[in-house]
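My main concern about presentation is that the manuscript never shows what a single data entry looks like. An entry of this sort, consisting of the sequence and the corresponding backbone structure tokens, reads as follows:
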Amino acid sequence: MTRIVKSLLFMIFLGALLAVPGNAQTINAASCNSTDVQAALNSVAADGTTVKIPAGTCTWTGSVTYNQKYSTTIQGASTINGTCAPGGTCTATDKTVITDNVSGTALTINTASGKSFRITGLTFNPSSGTPAYGAISINGSSTSVRVDHNHFNDTVNGDHTFNTDGINGVFDHNFFDSTNQANLNFIQSANYGTDGNANVVWTQPDNFGSSNFVFFENNLFQNGAFMDDCDYGARMVFRYNTVGTNARMQVHGTGSGAQRRGCRAQEIYGNTFTFSNNPAASNFAFLVMLEGGTGLAWGNTVTGFLQFIHEDVPRTNNDTYAQTPTPNGWGSCGTTLGPSNWDGNNNSTGYPCLDQVGRGAGDLLTGLFPNLVNNTTKAVTWPHQALVPWYVWSNTVNVVPQNPTHYWTNFDAVTVESRDYYLELPNIDESSTFNGTAGIGCGPAAATCANPVTQPASCTTGVGFWNATQGTLYKCSSTNTWTAYYTPYTYPHPLVTGSGSTSVAAPTNLAATVN
């Protein structure tokens, strides 16, 4: 009798313990069908839970939504074989295959602050007839999101596989492919704020070299029209990826649509980009279509493009986006089509234009058109944005035979070299040698720089010097004063815990299996 009582008490105790949130679960979805995946996600009740989606091929016609309360991993059975990047290649073994036939978003993850989230081991094929700004949408406020070792094959022209809003984390060791050169990748979005237009983001520091970005590293991209679509105040780091045929980078600026603010900050480094043997046949034979914000681009190998960076502040012309005059819109920058009170208007170009290339944090804007105002002045006025130039150095740009190839091309008069952006000297467009008065130098002389120089004692405010030995960019903060400006964030990203598609950090709590 005593043994029976003790056994019953132990079972009651164990059941109560496993029911307490914080004890990790493994939940096996009955199949890869959307209803079974939804049911499994609805069962998550503990931090450290892994929801396993079994091998199979399923077509989703209904959406799946997960409103996160607990740290969770969604894990399929697909694997990525080989080293996707840098300098490698990889293939996919497709075992858990989800074909998206949902009009709009098929999988929505609303993450929670202080919780981690991970997707690994899936093969996802957006193929519905209606393009979506995010077949998979990951939103919320988690700073620990990891998407790794997945195969994404987007076959919908104009589609974006991922939409992210408000999160920080890393996309690593994924294989992004397309069979029809669709927009197979991402629209990157920082936290929109209460008005949905990222005005708050444009008051915050640049945060270069920090974890306050969405990272893409060690991925293989091929055949997509655009690898990314940086918009709504996004912060993005794109590093150590291999990018194959016909893929480019897209940056939307303020004035490219409605009231939303443009891309906030980028770091692009250590990547290999190969576009085409005949780029002159393409209307977009440039790698970075840059419409605003600030950033750093270094250490990339660029082949088969007519232009490395193509700069175009959209509010300076009506070639792509027509502007609505204030107060119902931003208006145009410069006296040719404007001016607009949202800009600095220091000269006829409107300089500096709101959120233009080389501008950073400024005053908060509040409200919606036609009642949008500078919250400091309570009127339509220039928000006093900081000058934060682009810095571009140590890139290998291979000239395309029989075609003109350029390092940086301006499409407007408002953006000026050695003020709004700085390029390493010399480069394929400029033969000048760096002496501290303009551009960027690379050294010391013994370092692996294409044109190594010694850091000069004297310098003009704004110029840069990359100390290749230290891995640090120095900026001339004032006349003849060098200040450490940027050191890349830890690589690999701290959220990258292993190289296998099923590598999941071991839970520290008790584990229960729920079938």
User: Anything to note?
Assistant: DSSP finds two helices and 41 strands in the chain.
